[in-house]
Structure formats: structure tokens, C-alpha cells
Design goal:
18 strands; 18-stranded mixed beta sheet; PhzF family phenazine biosynthesis protein; isomerase; Diaminopimelate Epimerase, Chain A, domain 1; alpha+beta; about 260 residues
């Protein structure tokens, strides 16, 4: 049995930038264990699998370690492949997901605009060992939603973090977001998820479900421009719309082929 596989770099218009995701279109779901093994074999932050239905597509995401509830860059990569490789003729794709509901992705010029749920973070105590695992510099504030979110004073604070991934993996959370005001954009961020098999994620759409409502409230505006300042870097155009967030980005196809299962 063979299934098609694509790989796209999301939140960038340059190959080898942004966040790479594998995308596997399926006629029917494979066993969960097989999809998990494919994700592990791909060894990327996420592998997306989708199956066409009457209204769009059913969508699931796997890290090398586990299936996750929401992934932005692999959703963007999936939409890019459907539009550019699978001949989709509409302007909006609707993905049905188990834990994140319906996600819409609209083609907007050279970008793809994703409609995701807003997840405003709430103030939280700092778990033992977290600050030390991020290099020891104390953040201004600590929040939590699905992930911990630490707010720092400057972009340089974010760039200078040298994480201890083994220590971060012991924190009881899927991921850790660090963020600060940007020099050329409204805000910058990085994202670490070693417990999920992703030491540092290059660009993280799901983290922006937390970041957008926080920065919209802090800056007093709903339209925002953001960079995720990982080594590969990513750019997002964001908007807060009530209990939803819009994040737009670009994508480029890196490879296409077949998997023998």
C-alpha cells in the first residue's frame, strides 16, 4: 500500500525557513498506531493527516510522540497542499477536528488566513524549575492556557534564552511559550515542547491562540504583526475577532512522494 506524502515550509515564503510539516492525504483513516509511526519516521514537529468528507476535510495532527489537539503550521501546510497540489478550486477550506472544532483556512492573495479559537491565558504561579530551565532570567509575568506563557521585557531577552530541554521536559505542560515586544513587529515569541518530542518548534500557530488575545489587550489593538524568532524564523499577520483569532502566513512546497506502508 502506498500513500502520498508532501512536505511544506509554513509561515514563510522561502525554502528552509518557517516550520516544516509533513502532509498525508488519505482516502480512509489508517490505524492510529500506523499514523504515529509515520510521524515518528518523519521526525518533524508535526505530520498532518486528512480525509475528505462532505463539507471539507477531517484533520488530525501527530508529533513524533503523540497526537495533539491543535496545530497551526501543519494546518496551514495542509491547506497549501490542497490548494496547490490537489486542485481545490474554492477560496476557503473547512477542516473538522475532534478537539478544536471547525477550522477555516481562506486563500488571501499570497497568504493563507486561518480562523482558530482564541485561548486567552490566565495568570499562573511559576512551576518549580521552569525559570532555571530557561536560563534563569525572571520573566515579568507568567500565564497559562494549554501551555505556560512567560512574558519578558525585550526581544533580546527572548533571543538570549538557552533552554535546558531535559529540564523543560519535566514541567507538567505540553509546551512553554516565551514572548516580548518586538523591535520591528508588535511581538516576538519562541516555543518549546520537549515533552512532546519537539525541543523547539520553529513557528507555532497554536501558541498564537494565546499570544494574540494577550498582546491585543496589552497593546490596545486587534490587528498585529508577529515574528517567531527561532533559528528558521516565521512571520504571522494576526487579528483578534471576539472569541476567534485569525493568523495568516505563507507557505512553500519542499517535497512530494509516496510512503510504502
Amino acid at each position: 500500500m502506498t500513500i502520498p506524502i508532501y512536505q511544506a515550509d509554513a509561515f514563510t515564503d522561502e525554502l528552509f525557513g518557517g516550520n516544516p510539516a509533513a502532509v498525508c492525504p488519505l482516502n480512509d483513516w489508517l490505524p492510529d498506531a500506523v499514523m504515529q509511526k509515520i510521524a515518528l519516521e518523519n521526525n518533524l514537529a508535526e505530520t498532518a493527516f486528512f480525509v475528505k468528507n462532505s463539507t471539507g476535510y477531517l484533520l488530525r495532527w501527530f508529533t513524533p510522540e503523540l497526537e495533539i489537539d491543535l496545530c497551526g503550521h501543519a494546518t496551514l501546510a495542509s491547506a497549501h497542499i490542497i490548494f496547490t497540489e490537489l486542485g481545490y478550486e474554492g477560496d476557503t477550506i473547512y477542516f473538522e477536528t475532534v478537539k478544536a472544532g471547525t477550522l477555516a483556512v481562506k486563500r488571501d492573495g499570497d497568504k493563507y488566513a486561518m480562523d482558530f479559537p482564541s485561548r486567552p491565558p490566565f495568570a499562573a504561579d511559576t512551576p518549580e524549575g521552569l525559570v532555571a530551565a530557561l536560563g534563569g532570567k525572571k520573566p515579568l509575568k507568567v500565564f497559562r492556557s494549554r501551555d505556560y506563557m512567560l512574558v519578558y521585557e525585550t526581544e533580546d531577552d527572548i533571543l538570549n534564552i538557552i533552554p535546558d530541554h531535559s529540564a523543560l521536559a519535566k514541567i507538567d505542560t505540553l509546551g512553554i511559550i516565551v514572548t516580548a515586544p518586538g523591535k520591528k513587529v508588535d511581538f516576538v515569541s519562541r516555543f518549546f515542547a520537549p515533552a512532546a518530542g519537539v525541543p523547539e518548534d520553529p513557528v507555532t500557530g497554536s501558541a498564537h491562540c494565546n499570544l494574540i488575545p494577550y498582546w491585543a489587550a496589552r497593546l490596545g489593538k486587534n490587528i498585529l504583526h508577529a515574528y517567531q524568532v527561532s533559528a528558521r524564523k516565521g512571520e504571522l499577520w494576526c487579528e483578534l475577532k471576539g472569541d476567534r483569532v485569525l493568523m495568516a502566513g505563507k507557505a512553500v512546497t519542499y517535497l512530494k512522494g509516496e510512503i510504502y506502508v
